[in-house]
Amino acid sequence: MTPEIIATVESLEQAEALLKLGVDRIQFGEDYFGLRLKKSFSREQQAELIDLAHRYGKKADLAVNGIFHNDRIERVEEYLRFLNEKGADSITVGDPGVVQVMKGLERHPDFRYDMQVMVTNAKQINFWAKRGAKSAIVAREIPREELALIIEKAIVPVEVQVYGPTCIHQSKRPLLENYFNYVHEDEEVTRERDLFLSEPMKPNTHYSIYQDMNGTHIFASNDLNMIGQLKELLDMGAGQLKLDGLFTDAESFVSIVEIFKKEVEAVLDGSWTKEGAEEANRSLNAYHRANRSFDTGFYFKDPKEVQ
To answer: Is residue 30 a contact partner of residue 42, using CB atoms and an 8 Å limit?
Structure first.
């Protein structure tokens, strides 16, 4: 099976560069409905990105993966009608309330199921697949043995993140704002500030943190880099590979996606080698931000150690 490559985008220009590389689905949205977006696009810009994807014969996925309170769920129907009118191919959804809204519409984009850290077994994926989900985003904290079992038993394609940051905590509360108010300082709390937390006595911990209209977001010290595991993931049958450029500058992210794309092609045409993967990893490191390290997340952990 040929895997679908999904990449986040932050501008029309970057989106076109990624589509030229052969990315199958670009992901974007506006922050009222989507979480942890590199850029919140206007409605006009979203329509342009959808059209751009279609001109290249590719697909556009809109992030509707927020957890909505009563006031904000009321606006979801209007947004879904807009996306359907503009021809969005899919939406990424986590809140069952959004699925309920979709049931009241004659037409809507396909939906991909994403309940963040909660997606840890194939039965949950299949439950939503039987209710219309076309694919599902597995939790980032899944070890290899469990991931292989989920992919085997899921009845729809499973998305695995292969590059980018892992969010380990989100709170609707403005935690950074509250902290700076407490210490009587007036500070910016946006992603651009590049703020981070460190654990006491553990100077190597670097939990990136920022605040936006969806609350406070905290990330693992290291970003995911699964380029060395691509062959194994494809042999497992991973149907979708996700690259997230949240903390990567626009041009470097395009170069990183290109490296991953070439490695996927090498696996598919039988030219993949361990040495080639190691060289690709060295090339990738040249584009990754110097203050952010890599690891493989939970992939090699013993499932018994994951609590």
So the answer is: yes
User: SS3 sequence, the chain?
Assistant: CCCEEEEECCCHHHHHHHHHHCCCEEEECCCCCCCCCCCCCCHHHHHHHHHHHHHCCCEEEEEECCCCCHHHHCCHHHHHHHHHHHCCCEEEECCHHHHHHHHCCCCCCEEEECCHHHCCCHHHHHHHHCCCEEEEECCCCCCHHHHHHHHHHCCCCEEEEEEECCEEEEECCCHHHHHHHHCCCCCCCCHHHCCEEEECCEEEEEEEEEEECCEEEEECCEEEECHHHHHHHHHHCCCEEEECCCCCCHHHHHHHHHHHHHHHHHHHHCCCCHHHHHHHHHHHHHHCCCCCEEECCCCCCCHHHCC
Q: Name the maximum alpha-carbon separation found in the chain.
A: 60
What is the pLDDT at residue 280? 96
Residue carrying the six token digits 């014969």: 57
pLDDT of 252-294, one tens digit each? 999 999 999 999 999 999 999 999 999 999 999 999 887 788 9
Predicted TM-score (pTM) of the model is 0.95
C-alpha distances in Å from residue 126, one per residue of 123, 129, 147, 156 = 5, 5, 15, 7
Tens-place pLDDT, residues 92-141: 999 999 999 999 999 999 999 999 888 999 999 999 999 999 999 999 99
How far from the centroid of its chain's Cα atoms is residue 228's Cα?
19
Domains of the chain: 4-165+224-305 (3.20.20.110), 175-212 (no CATH)
Q: How far apart are CA 125 and CA 258, in angstroms?
A: 30
